[in-house]
Amino acid sequence: MTIRQAMVMAAGLGTRMRPITDTIPKPLVKIAGKPMIDYALDALAEARVEQVVVNVHHHADQMEAHLRNYRGLDILISDERDALMNNGGGLAKGLKLLGRDPVFVMNSDLFWIGETPGRPTNLQRLAGFFDVARMDIAMLCVALDKTTGHNGRNDFNLAEDDRLSRYNNAFANGVVYAGAIVMNPSILEDAPDEAFNINIYYDKSIAKGRLYGTMLDGHWLTVGTPEAIGEAEETIRTFRAFA
């Protein structure tokens, strides 16, 4: 499956990244010389996505100016200046600007490096994995030992049939959510207009046996605090040295 549309979640306040985010939005914080959101946008462009919605709130004018200058994608703005919608409400609002075909959804502050050259990208593999007949959501996952900046906890268990369930250490194969999904927008048709957490819909999909996962190729990074910037940049330097 080729997916042509996406949403990037970028409206958060970035409170843990203060004082940096007192003056700029977290998605524009540079890691190895590149704004964090550009890692997501570049991955979407490489996967041949054409149209992307980005939601904005904190320092929204800076976000809009940056996105106007990004080349290679048709970027639409979902404006949350008036009120933050949480990740679920923001997603439901932003998806109204797109069509009803399957869509990528990515976080603007989670990204990966070190994909294997010559093979499909992580997003291309995720799109190929997604089966609308069996799945509401397909989630990119990563093993704990292939993460930098993470809190050390697993999010889900990945079964042999690729179904995901909430993490329980009594079961094997714990995995971390790697910040990218493919989903069928129709699952949010009953979503409320106010703020809510997207985990409500992850749990609904788990209950129906329709949340699936596939593993990331490479190394995953999350940068939540100013102190984590250096750790992320050192990881990137190490990978580049061996590329």
TrEMBL record:
What the entry lists under InterPro entries is as follows:
GlmU-like, NTP_transferase_dom, Nucleotide-diphossugar_trans
Domain Nucleotidyl transferase: where? 6-111
What SUPFAM superfamilies has UniProt attached to this entry? Answer: Nucleotide-diphospho-sugar transferases
Query: Carries keyword Cytoplasm?
Result: no
Q: Per its UniProt record, what Pfam families does this chain match?
A: NTP_transferase (PF00483)
Would the keyword Manganese turn up in this protein's UniProt record? no
Keywords, sorted A to Z: Nucleotidyltransferase, Transferase
**Highest taxon in the source lineage:** Bacteria
Q: Which Gene3D superfamilies does the UniProt record give? A: Spore Coat Polysaccharide Biosynthesis Protein SpsA, Chain A (3.90.550.10)
What is the protein name given in its UniProt record?
Nucleotidyltransferase family protein
